[in-house]
Amino acid sequence: MVLNSKVVLITGAKGGLGNSVTNCFLEAGARVVGVARSIDHSDFPQERFTAMPADLSTGENARKLVEAAAAQWGRIDGLVHLVGGFAGGQSIADTDDATLDRMLDLNLRSAFYVIRAVLPGMRALSSGRIIAIGSKAAVEPSPMAGAYAASKAALVSLIRTAARENRDKHIAANVLLPGTMDTPANRAAMPGADVSKWVAPLQVARLAVHLMSDAASNITGAAIPVDGGF
């Protein structure tokens, strides 16, 4: 199999995108540690799947999660960070502190905490893959979503910095920048939208599997658009 029992930690493993990513990694032969606030082994009933409910709102929580995953499987070969969220609809002038804090917590701080937690183990192994899900808005922001776009732009910078700081240990870090994802939540939130221009979660999942594989070992520090050209 493509991933040949690599141990992959997937945060946000359950949900519109998370289900597709987790299933793709399992199908590719990975041992998956699936993380979400609420997740159970029955969500992905396979021998190579382990559910670890966790909240990544603090660095200490991320450290404990990574320690538990590494203790169970002996190592962590890869991290796929899917945790994120959107809040918008106001101009920068009208955006309150709570919205800014929420966007930074979901889209930047959670990534920082878990990346910081996995790096020592990866550096000790002199190998590793880190993949994060960003957004097209990180590089092409739209009006009325300034806090969201800024938090995703910061995530891109974080990933590219991680790539540069850890290339000496053969650790690759990349971020995917999808357009609007075709998930049940987005369809419910935007019932009149043209979904033909939206991104299928399965395409993002398959790209993440490729980036985790040995075939993509020289791809690092990349911010990869996944938007169909729209």
Give your account of this protein's structure.
The protein has one domain (7-226): 3-Layer(aba) Sandwich (Rossmann fold). It has a seven-stranded parallel β-sheet with strand order 3-2-1-4-5-6-7, with helices on both faces. It is built from six helices and seven strands. It has helices spanning 18-27, 59-73, 97-125, 146-166, 184-189, 201-212; strands at residues 7-11, 31-36, 49-53, 78-81, 128-133, 171-178, 223-226. It has 230 residues and is α/β, with parallel strands linked by helices.
Task: Itemize the secondary structure elements and their pairings.
Elements: E1 7-11, H1 18-27, E2 31-36, E3 49-53, H2 59-73, E4 78-81, H3 97-125, E5 128-133, H4 146-166, E6 171-178, H5 184-189, H6 201-212, E7 223-226
Parallel strand pairs: 1-2, 1-4, 2-3, 4-5, 5-6, 6-7
The CATH superfamily turns out to be NAD(P)-binding Rossmann-like Domain
Beta-strand percent range: 15-25%
Strand and helix order: EHEEHEHEHEHHE
Secondary structural class? alpha/beta
Instruction: List the strand order in the largest sheet.
Output: 3-2-1-4-5-6-7
Largest sheet: 7 strands, parallel
Multimer state? single chain
Low-confidence stretches: none
Count of distinct strands? 7
Mean pLDDT: 96
Number of domains: 1
